[in-house]
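>> Question from a student workshop board

For tomorrow's exercise we were told to take the sequence and the ligand below, predict the bound structure, and bring the output to class. My setup keeps failing. Could a helper post the expected result so I can at least see what it should look like? The ligand is UFG.
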Amino acid sequence: MNKGRVLVTGAAGYIGSHTVVELTGAGYDVVGVDNFSNSSPQMLDGIRQITGSPLTFIEADCSDRNQLARVFEQYPDIRASIHFAAHKAVGESVQQPLKYFENNLTSLLNLIGLSTADGNSRGIVFSSSCTVYGEPDPENLPIKETAPVKPATSPYGRTKQMCEEILHDCTAACPGLKVIALRYFNPIGAHPSALIGEMPAGVPQNLVPYITQTAAGIRKELKIFGNDYPTPDGTCIRDYIYVVDLAKAHVAAVDRILGTTGSDRYEIFNLGTGTGLSVLELVNHFISATGVNLPYSFAPRRAGDIIKVWADPGKANRVLGWKADTPVDDVLRSAWEWEKKVRGIR
Ligand code: UFG
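>> Workshop helper replied:
Here is what the output should look like for this input. Compare the format with yours to find the bug.
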């Protein structure tokens, strides 16, 4: 069954690549776009191998309106877009805020403009983040979509908040536009085929790639940032969600946006498991699930880290009919299998 054409920006990226696989499996015709600023064409080969079908792909920079316009000219039948293409390094955004505002905002503005330019009805699924909640008040945990959005702690986080507001206002003004903003918690893991996965450039900033690189012997030891937080074991708590479960939520969001159900034209969903795990718990899961030695030590707190946050995914469970239910041990094994594949470890 062909369900129509969906544009995926950032298709070669970590979440984008997994989503292209799930969309293809669900019967959508995907046109992928990426400028490879933080990804590799190799990921497209992985996607093609998994799906066993050709992937329509155009190399383009979404912040260049002419480049993105050519995609819409070539495929005027695009019914919805999933917008992943954005810079995402929190620390870098503090050093180079303009880079983040220019790229992340301009890309979205171009996408909205082109999605609405010909008067056709189109949908946009937007990659947002739980970072919009900042440090939640304890009484707001697990965190619902109705929790207050707090002032962003980084320019990266601010672009997510601004993009959500822009989409909200444009949806109100443009009857043909329908938007779903998905606020991700902490995506981890890799496709079970180990043909696609997370590929951080340089030293990984995120926990799981650092763990797998340490297990592979590329890093000497994992430093756990802070063990004196007001949590049961003193380390920070997050809601780690399997990237394949996350990808499936995007298919459910596109189904909803293109379907007749759902009266609201702008909707927000939290995507998480609903369970918080501490850094130490995650590390112990990795060791027991893989049987691999993982040297680690405790280090000072990392500036800007939130103490604890996990999702109430109830709205996504009910409305999207979706649930993140892959056991964390399986997820961590998938991350390790991917790391081994990349490094040629048997
Ligand atoms: N951590 C370590 N050692 C490391 C790396 C991380 O102890 O080497 C800890 C962090 O201090 C934190 C936890 O592991 O407690 C998770 O850290 P990540 O960097 O993996 O994830 P964050 O929750 O800090 O950041 C993620 C996304 C951001 C997003 C943010 C929103 O990567 O894009 O969630 O809260 F903005």
